Amino acid sequence: MDTTSSGASMDPITGSPLLNQSDDPVTPVMQSDTESSPSTARGIGTSVDQSTGVSIADPKSGAGTALDMRAPRVQQFSSSKSVSVDLSRVTNAGTGASLVDKPMPSTSCAQSDRPPLVEDICVYNRSHLTDAQRKEILSCQWRPPAGFRFPTRLMGPEGASQRSRRFNARLLDEYPFARYSKKLDGVFCGPCFVFTSNTDCILVSSPMRDWSNGKKILERHSRSKNHGNASVRADAFLSECSGKQTVSQVFVTQKTKTSYKSLYILRCVIDILEYCARSNIPLRGKTNDDGHVKGLLNLCLKHDAELRDCFQSVARNAMYTSPQIQNELLGLMALQIQRHILRNVRAARWFCLLADGIDTSTKEQIALAVRYVHQDDVTGAVEIREDFVEFVEAIVCTGRGLGELFLRRLVAWGVDAQCMRGQGYNRSANMSDKFSGAQAHIQTTVPDAVYTACKAHGLNTAVLQSCSLQAVRNMFDFTKKIAVKLKHFTKRTSLFAVEVKGLGALASDFDEEPTHMTTFPAADIQWRNQTDSLARFIDQYALIARSLEKIGQFDSDCCALLCAIKEFTFIVALVCVEHVLARTKPLHLYLQRVDIDLMQAVEEACNIVQILRDMREQSETVFAELYPKILAMAGSVLTVECICSLQNQKDVSTATQQDYYRLNVLVPFLDHVVSELQDQLINCRERFIGQYVIPTKLPLLKEEHELALFSAFKNDLSSLDELKIELLRWRTKWGTAPLQSQPNSIVATLQNVNKHLYPCVHAILSVLATMPVSISSVERSFSALRRMKYWLRIGMGDQRLCALAVLHIHQDIPLSVDQVLRDFDPCKDRRFSDVHMD
């Protein structure tokens, strides 16, 4: 036999035979004892040194590895034929570079935590491993001896960009599962080599030899699911071999550890999502790999070693950071808050439904809220709450369609619709119409759900009706157009800012926002801002006029606006309207409160009406005080006092111009406001008689009123006789009490009534307290919606939007992470399902 072609190539360090690269790289190819001898075996292109017995590479042959032919045999096969080794293929490895750049020094075993491998890992047959071989591969790791130099190879595309690379021994310390093969100059994964059945995979069936990206490849492999499973099996096998635990016990222990790590990661993700949602911080960036959630998570990884260890040891699909998981967790967090609100609603029994709509992103979004009386279980404090529940999309915006939508949502909430005692909407036709509106459709199903128009809208409507006066309507129109010109155009805004800063007395007021002069249309809900805007317009009247004069050089519309505001009638209407609306401003603010009841709102409206009536009776004195201010504003823009703008109208003839403007502007405006406030806010309902149950008003409750009281609340009272007996006891209780200690409001009375001793009184006051005053709470949810759904987040889904809105609006309701985890687990087979959560 020609030993030149059949002799096996030997490793210069260990003397182990090299593999034939033409065969499977993990199949051992050994030389038979009967067919090899130190004197005859020789590699291709080598000569033997007669003094040492070591073959020397022939430069002409291209071989670059010296073979020690005196190395012992480690494994023997039954085959009598030896397999020849093409050494050039081993040395070149596809790049033409030599595995060994110079003769290797003598070797000795390096000190390490793991004992060195007896065999090179590539000599083992993966499909026929014995338990002893498995144990050796898993528990032993070859380490380079002192002074050892790894072979270098050219890597990269051919040409000048190729670089010589070698294996970095530090990777063996960073990744304990790595097993270096000296024969193949490559790295295998020990656990995967033994327990993974994949036959075509880097680090498993073939070595990893890309030293340029070695660390990245090992890191990615360490986080893979297959490697995790192989590592668990490897730990179980070694534990059973040592007699510590059985395989099943190891699997249970490892699964529990993995579950706790996944649970720890999930808790951190929930905390980050809650923080972002409550602070209205966008969760994602341009891609799923960036954004605030990933950024905060990376920040936590820097400062939390335990979290960092969990992320490094769990699989990628156990990190719970995908957008789908985020949406699911946000939905569960919002669901927990909604359950808390609806649980309080069911405990209160009676409630009122509040709703309003807004058009966003070509969708009609309906905000739904509930008003109810809540009593704290710990302190016993009673309060009136208006809590936002959700946003829903209205497909059909007719009265019938909206009514059916509201009833379906009540069923979905698990709330009894028959306990609804009030409806609070705006004055739009599809909501408020008594024949075809949503309130009429709901009353056919729930007759006791009495509709009450929003009092804040009623106050606005009162002013809108007053705007039927030509002078007042023109004034509102001109101020709105001027506000748009001076705020929404850069060049015009800059000119106005220059005028403001030129006035030293007011410059400090506008350093931060020099254009903070905004007037809104008369139909706007924020009438407090309207009043403030009119007052600011008066203060800056001269500045505005000069700004319009400069802007008019390139904008003809501003010239027309300048002429309009210079008219004496405009100045009179501006000052008179601002003076009247300033008296109604406290009522606007009061109607926007949550804890106000309907009786308090009516009382405050009566006070405002009385103030305006007094102004009407003393109009001469009031206008006499305003007229010098009007003249001063007119003189600042060289406007001449005249009445020509009103000559074509049917005006009241007067002797003086001052009386003329008083009788044609101030007095009609006051008459209209008083009339509309009386109709919109103070009209009594039959339930208003329930206010006489309040201790301070008990003397007004006569015996003839008891029948009307029972008729108004008959579905919530047991019988008329029981009501009379209970009222008798109620009068006796408060008849002897000092006047200072008697409650004077509905909430204060509910705080002092025992619902078990006085069930009828408690029912009357609770129903009266749930009757809506305004829908300001729903309007506030629209403000939150505008903050969340701006143009960069226009594609946000409805479920995600609703979840973020609930978390952002209800800052006062705490969230239980444990409850979120309990709700999250039953949905699917989670990795932490075997971990007990208290």
Number of helices, where a helix is a run of at least 4 consecutive DSSP H or I residues: 32
Q: Radius of gyration from the CA trace? A: 43 Å
Helical percent range? Answer: 40-55%
User: How would you classify the helix and strand content by structural class?
Assistant: alpha+beta
Biggest sheet features: 5 strands, mixed
Globally, the shape reads elongated
Distance between the termini: 76 Å
Q: Report strand %.
A: 5-15%
Provide an overview of this structure.
- The protein is an alpha+beta fold and 838 residues long.
- The protein is built from 32 helices and eleven strands.
- The protein has a five-stranded mixed β-sheet with strand order 9-8-7-10-11, sandwiched between helices.
- Helix 8 (247-278) packs across helix 9 (292-303) and helix 11 packs across helix 31 (798-809).
- It is elongated and about 120 Å long.
- Mean pLDDT is 77; it is low at 1-112, 504-527 and 643-650.
